[in-house]
Amino acid sequence: MVKALADRLAEAFAEYLHQQARADWGYGADERLSSDDLVAEKYRGIRPAFGYPACPDHTLKAPLFTLLHAQHAGVSLTEHFAMMPAASVSGLYFANSDARYFTVGRIGHDQLADYAKRKGVTAEEAERWLTPNLAYDPTPVGRC
User: For the segment 107-120, what is each residue's pLDDT rounded down to a tens digit?
Assistant: First the structure.
């Protein structure tokens, strides 16, 4: 019960910070949203996070945590990029009224190769982290 409550409080605080950012940055200063409106995401801007459908690569948490000095807040990453303590959240705020949540489609060989090259990792490493999002079987038999 304590873990579930901690998870909910972490998410609630992230939403609160998003509300504050919208007000402080001016793109949501005039918002008058009910709790139902917030749940339905009727606000402007988005708060995507690494590991979710719009940003499926968990490894991008590492540079984010470095940039934010997350260790000073007592948050760290496991070798699989899970956040510790477990009741932690991270994400990005996009202050644009046209920003919408989206899902990355299935990733093909060519897209994976391009992504790996731009990220500076091998295709095999990129496949390891993006396996659920691949449009092909990444096992050696499934490779072209």
Answer: 999 999 999 999 99
Ramachandran quadrant class, 74 (left: phi over 0; alpha: psi -120 to 50; beta: rest):
left
Report whether the peptide linkage leading into residue 85 is cis, meaning its omega lies within 30 degrees of zero.
yes
Strand partners, 94: 46
- Asked if the 2-104 domain carries CATH number 3.10.196.10, the reply is yes
Ramachandran region, residue 124 (left: φ > 0; alpha: ψ -120 to 50; beta: rest): alpha
Give long-range contacts, CB 8 A cutoff, 24+ apart: 75-84: 81/50, 81/51
- To the question of pTM greater than 0.90 for the whole model, the response is no
